[in-house]
Here is the input.
Amino acid sequence: MTKVCLGNIADIIDGQAKGFDPASCGQDSMFVVRKGSKVYAYRDICPHYASTSLPWKRHHYLDASANNIVCAAHGALFAVHDGMCLRGPCVGQSLKTIEIEVGSNNEMWVDLKTIKEFKV
Here is the structure.
């Protein structure tokens, strides 16, 4: 298993999100949302339309209140803690969760095999 370090939890401001390109494919393929000491990682694709990434601008994955993940193209809202669509054209569907491992020094690690499986 090949793991890639995404950085430290402290690199993401509490209540915000950050996109990552761990497989070096030229665009962010995943993002991480930080809420306090917890982090939630998802694939950067709206389940409503498989070729649409979520943010309108890099790292802008959350709505204005920073309470939900938002798809800028469709206006869909997703819960941060589980990726479930709360409003929009994909209600009942969810974002694809990515398992990340948090190390003893708060580094975030992702299995590169998981990311490579996402290539469309």
